[in-house]
Amino acid sequence: MPALRGPTTYDNEPPRNPLLKVNAKVPFNAETPRSALIDAYVTSVDMFYKRNHGPIPVLDDSDRYFVTVGGLVQRHLAISMDDIRMLPKYTIVATLQCAGNRRTAMSKKRTVKGVGWDIGALGNAVWGGARLSDVLKLAKVPEYTAVTEAGGRHVEFTSVDVCKEENGGPYKASIPLLQATSPEADVLIAYEMNGKVLSRDHGYPLRVVVPGTIGARSVKWLDKIEVNANECQGFFMQKDYKMFPPTVDWDNIKWPSRRPLMDFPVNCAICSLEDVSSAEWGKKVIIRGYAFSGGGRGIERVDVSVDGGKTWVEARRYQKEGVPYVSDTEDCDKWAWVLFELQTEIHPPTDIIVKAVDSAANVQPEKVETIWNLRGVLNNSWHVVHVNNAAKKISSNL
Hints:
5-stranded mixed beta sheet, 6 helices, 21 strands, oxidoreductase, heme binding, sulfite oxidase activity, molybdenum ion binding
């Protein structure tokens, strides 16, 4: 068992970078400032967004820490850190994103419920650990298994933390068994982030990383792995992180009518423009930002308009500097964001707009009103930056 269960008070929180944009102090939720998002392809650990539902657990990776593997499997296990480290180590570059990223734009149209995220509730990191499929093999669950002999179809992850939404119980979530047992899905039981031991804020000593899927499924501070017949019945699978049409409100909502969110849709945002001085207007400026899509789908192109959508120009895409980005090549990090850049002139007043298209030809919707939902999740409408000549400032319709 873990050396210490999740605390119920906030007396032992880890230190945080003061440059983070704090959206809630208790529990602590903070995002990366816009300009810092594009400082580097890999987001530093201290500037990576923090999404929490309770106090940060205090655990160690000594002999007292075990992750149990059970449920509808042939062999039940208690796995130590040494056991995990003995499995083949894999590293993946993957973007994690809160489902509420860019929620503020929805709240400007109509009230939504949730943390008021700008465009920085995401980050790109190098994750290291064992593949979940290798862990499940130890429990006699073969690769590429959709259902076990005992009827297991879903893999549930349980954390150590304490959440008010779970009535003081731990955070939990699940993914389909086929995804969990497929090596190509790259689901990790991670113990490293950017080549270093996980920090407390990011799940030390073990966390799940489910690439291409909303961050809510990448459970931190891992305690249990269970193979079950049904998907997780916890709050964050059944009564949160679901997307409803604009007609649904809190009076007529029916939670069982919608599936839990999994893959995130194609999205992009401008990070380089917040304030533009008058000296830059009419001269060349560099428009930079990120683009990504879920499920391992690459970014086919990023379109930029500096005249409110009348004309469009394709931006340059890259991941590693100096290497042209082409999805589905050995140089492509398929789970990671793509950075884009365009040098152009702007002439206020105008709207600067970006929209992305992924490798499956999925296109971002134009207006946030068409995808508004009461939880403010998965806002992937066009990202618009308003250039106001009179105010000589940049404001954003995120």
